[in-house]
Amino acid sequence: MPLLRALIEGELSHIRDRFAVTTMISEFHSTMIDLAGNQTLIMFSHALRGLVEEHMNLAQRRNINIDPEFSMKQLRFGLKSHSKLVDLIEAKDGAGAEAHWKSHMVAVRQGLAGAGGAEFGGRSDRLIFGIIAHIAYIASRQKQCNHIADCTDK
User: Fold this and answer.
1) Alpha carbon distance 73, 118 (integer Å)
2) DSSP letter string, 43-68
3) Which end of the chain is more exposed for a tag (fewer CB within 10 A), N or C?
Protein backbone atom coordinates (compact mmCIF):
# COMPACT_ATOMS: atom_id res chain seq x y z
CA MET A 1 0.00 0.00 0.00
CA PRO A 2 2.44 2.64 -1.19
CA LEU A 3 -0.21 5.39 -1.04
CA LEU A 4 -0.90 4.78 2.65
CA ARG A 5 2.83 4.51 3.41
CA ALA A 6 3.39 7.85 1.67
CA LEU A 7 0.63 9.44 3.75
CA ILE A 8 2.23 8.12 6.95
CA GLU A 9 5.58 9.59 5.85
CA GLY A 10 3.77 12.90 5.29
CA GLU A 11 2.30 12.71 8.78
CA LEU A 12 5.74 12.07 10.26
CA SER A 13 7.31 14.90 8.28
CA HIS A 14 4.73 17.34 9.73
CA ILE A 15 4.74 15.98 13.28
CA ARG A 16 5.91 19.27 14.84
CA ASP A 17 3.20 21.36 13.13
CA ARG A 18 -0.12 20.66 14.89
CA PHE A 19 -2.24 22.09 12.09
CA ALA A 20 -0.38 20.42 9.21
CA VAL A 21 -0.27 17.02 10.91
CA THR A 22 -3.99 17.27 11.71
CA THR A 23 -4.66 17.78 8.01
CA MET A 24 -2.38 14.86 7.10
CA ILE A 25 -4.12 12.58 9.60
CA SER A 26 -7.48 13.57 8.15
CA GLU A 27 -6.17 12.74 4.67
CA PHE A 28 -5.02 9.30 5.88
CA HIS A 29 -8.48 8.57 7.30
CA SER A 30 -10.20 9.82 4.14
CA THR A 31 -7.98 7.67 1.97
CA MET A 32 -8.76 4.63 4.12
CA ILE A 33 -12.46 5.25 3.60
CA ASP A 34 -11.97 5.66 -0.15
CA LEU A 35 -9.94 2.45 -0.38
CA ALA A 36 -12.64 0.49 1.44
CA GLY A 37 -14.85 0.97 -1.61
CA ASN A 38 -18.06 1.37 0.39
CA GLN A 39 -19.93 3.95 -1.67
CA THR A 40 -22.30 4.96 1.14
CA LEU A 41 -19.44 5.59 3.55
CA ILE A 42 -17.48 7.45 0.85
CA MET A 43 -20.46 9.70 0.12
CA PHE A 44 -21.00 10.57 3.80
CA SER A 45 -17.26 11.01 4.34
CA HIS A 46 -16.93 13.45 1.48
CA ALA A 47 -20.01 15.34 2.65
CA LEU A 48 -18.64 15.71 6.19
CA ARG A 49 -14.93 16.07 5.44
CA GLY A 50 -14.87 19.86 5.69
CA LEU A 51 -16.88 19.85 8.92
CA VAL A 52 -14.62 17.31 10.58
CA GLU A 53 -11.42 19.05 9.44
CA GLU A 54 -12.65 22.43 10.65
CA HIS A 55 -13.66 20.89 13.97
CA MET A 56 -10.20 19.37 14.42
CA ASN A 57 -8.47 22.64 13.51
CA LEU A 58 -10.72 24.56 15.89
CA ALA A 59 -9.86 22.11 18.66
CA GLN A 60 -6.15 22.67 17.92
CA ARG A 61 -6.57 26.47 18.03
CA ARG A 62 -8.55 26.39 21.28
CA ASN A 63 -6.26 23.98 23.07
CA ILE A 64 -3.10 26.11 23.22
CA ASN A 65 -2.26 25.10 26.79
CA ILE A 66 -1.91 21.38 26.11
CA ASP A 67 1.28 19.78 27.43
CA PRO A 68 3.53 19.47 24.34
CA GLU A 69 5.17 16.29 25.65
CA PHE A 70 1.78 14.66 26.24
CA SER A 71 0.56 15.80 22.84
CA MET A 72 3.64 14.43 21.06
CA LYS A 73 3.29 11.11 22.90
CA GLN A 74 -0.33 10.81 21.76
CA LEU A 75 0.58 11.79 18.23
CA ARG A 76 3.39 9.24 17.98
CA PHE A 77 1.04 6.56 19.35
CA GLY A 78 -1.53 7.41 16.68
CA LEU A 79 0.96 7.43 13.83
CA LYS A 80 2.41 4.11 14.99
CA SER A 81 -1.14 2.79 14.96
CA HIS A 82 -1.57 3.96 11.35
CA SER A 83 1.57 2.04 10.40
CA LYS A 84 0.39 -1.09 12.18
CA LEU A 85 -2.94 -0.87 10.35
CA VAL A 86 -1.17 -0.72 7.00
CA ASP A 87 0.97 -3.72 8.03
CA LEU A 88 -2.20 -5.69 8.75
CA ILE A 89 -3.81 -4.63 5.47
CA GLU A 90 -0.72 -5.62 3.49
CA ALA A 91 -0.75 -8.99 5.26
CA LYS A 92 -4.41 -9.33 4.17
CA ASP A 93 -5.39 -9.79 7.81
CA GLY A 94 -8.84 -8.22 7.57
CA ALA A 95 -10.02 -9.36 10.98
CA GLY A 96 -6.82 -8.11 12.60
CA ALA A 97 -7.05 -4.78 10.77
CA GLU A 98 -10.67 -4.31 11.83
CA ALA A 99 -9.93 -5.19 15.47
CA HIS A 100 -6.88 -2.92 15.52
CA TRP A 101 -8.77 0.03 14.04
CA LYS A 102 -11.65 -0.35 16.48
CA SER A 103 -9.22 -0.27 19.40
CA HIS A 104 -7.39 2.68 17.80
CA MET A 105 -10.61 4.71 17.57
CA VAL A 106 -11.50 3.90 21.19
CA ALA A 107 -8.01 4.98 22.31
CA VAL A 108 -8.22 8.20 20.29
CA ARG A 109 -11.60 9.03 21.74
CA GLN A 110 -10.39 8.39 25.29
CA GLY A 111 -7.25 10.44 24.61
CA LEU A 112 -9.27 13.37 23.32
CA ALA A 113 -11.58 13.21 26.29
CA GLY A 114 -8.65 13.38 28.69
CA ALA A 115 -6.43 15.77 26.77
CA GLY A 116 -7.82 19.15 27.59
CA GLY A 117 -10.97 19.20 29.63
CA ALA A 118 -13.87 21.05 28.07
CA GLU A 119 -12.16 21.74 24.74
CA PHE A 120 -11.60 18.06 23.96
CA GLY A 121 -14.18 15.47 24.78
CA GLY A 122 -16.89 18.09 25.08
CA ARG A 123 -20.28 18.24 23.42
CA SER A 124 -18.94 18.99 19.93
CA ASP A 125 -16.47 16.07 20.08
CA ARG A 126 -19.24 13.72 21.18
CA LEU A 127 -21.40 15.01 18.33
CA ILE A 128 -18.67 14.47 15.74
CA PHE A 129 -17.85 10.98 17.03
CA GLY A 130 -21.57 10.17 17.18
CA ILE A 131 -22.07 11.24 13.57
CA ILE A 132 -19.05 9.22 12.44
CA ALA A 133 -20.20 6.15 14.38
CA HIS A 134 -23.68 6.43 12.90
CA ILE A 135 -22.32 6.77 9.37
CA ALA A 136 -20.04 3.78 9.91
CA TYR A 137 -23.04 1.76 11.12
CA ILE A 138 -25.14 2.70 8.09
CA ALA A 139 -22.29 1.93 5.75
CA SER A 140 -21.56 -1.40 7.41
CA ARG A 141 -25.11 -2.50 6.64
CA GLN A 142 -24.30 -2.06 2.94
CA LYS A 143 -20.84 -3.65 2.80
CA GLN A 144 -19.26 -4.37 -0.53
CA CYS A 145 -16.48 -6.35 1.12
CA ASN A 146 -15.94 -7.86 4.56
CA HIS A 147 -12.76 -6.02 5.54
CA ILE A 148 -10.61 -3.31 4.00
CA ALA A 149 -7.83 -5.89 3.53
CA ASP A 150 -10.20 -7.77 1.22
CA CYS A 151 -10.89 -4.60 -0.79
CA THR A 152 -7.38 -3.42 -1.57
CA ASP A 153 -7.35 -4.82 -5.10
CA LYS A 154 -10.06 -2.33 -6.16
Assistant:
1) 20
2) HHHHHHHHHHHHHHHHHHHH-TTS-H
3) C
